[in-house]
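User: Quick one: structure for sequence A, then sequence B.

Assistant: Sequence A:
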Amino acid sequence: MKTIRVYADTSVYGGVHDDEFRQSSLTFFAQVEAGQFVLVTSAVVQDEMVAAPLAVRRFFDEMLGFAEVADITRSALDLRDAYLQAGIVTPRYSDDALHVALATVSGCTLIVSWNFQHIVHFRKIPLYNAMNTLQGYQQIAIFSPQEVIQYEDEEV
């Protein structure tokens, strides 16, 4: 079975230190370490980490050893701009659109995020994927970490 390439946005790293999201975030990253997922992050996440609490930055730095870092390319910027022009998110949230674009251009199968307003949202996901198709890219699955982790009693 092919290992799934997963883009984790900034919220997932922060989720490790949030009471509501801790357990699912820790389980996701443990499964990354176990080789169940290929972790992809980006320069955008690295930039957003500058403002994060020290514990979140330290955890992110630990996980970099397990991650591929997607560069911000012209293709990703063009796809982000297509999302913005389509009104999926406003320019104020262009970094959220860039996360989706970077994951798509980097060939990820899915994105995990705790951002339920601009990324993991039932109205936005089909719009991102429609624009991906129009721009010649594959569709991408978008979920919270809770929805992608494998539970102990689960058979794959």
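Sequence B:
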Amino acid sequence: MRNYLMILPIALLVTYSQLIVKWRSSAVEQLASASFLQHLIKFITDPVILSAYTAALVASFAWLYVVTKLPLTVAFPVYIGVTFAMVLLGGWFFLSETLSTTKLVAVLLIFSGIVIGVTADA
């Protein structure tokens, strides 16, 4: 069980990265007439977006460690499922995105699958 908990910080870092990129990309949308290069420069020079990419990079290196401790066929679905749920809730809480019953049922089904997959591996 302890090894599965190692996935949580990775999912948190990736969730942070995704939410920040979505949030900050709204600022770039204000440059509607700007060229692709101007958009790219805006992203590259934004310290908040850089922190998001740094978080994703750290998560990638941490993932290398996790896959040495867990079977990939179990670790990856757990990681994706937890990240999906966290991004869904973070998008609702921080970005005011819609949270429908269908999305909540989907998260419950994903977590049910994770529980089945993890207990079947034990």
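The first helix runs from residue 2 to 5. The chain has one domain: 2-121.

User: Thanks, that's what I needed.
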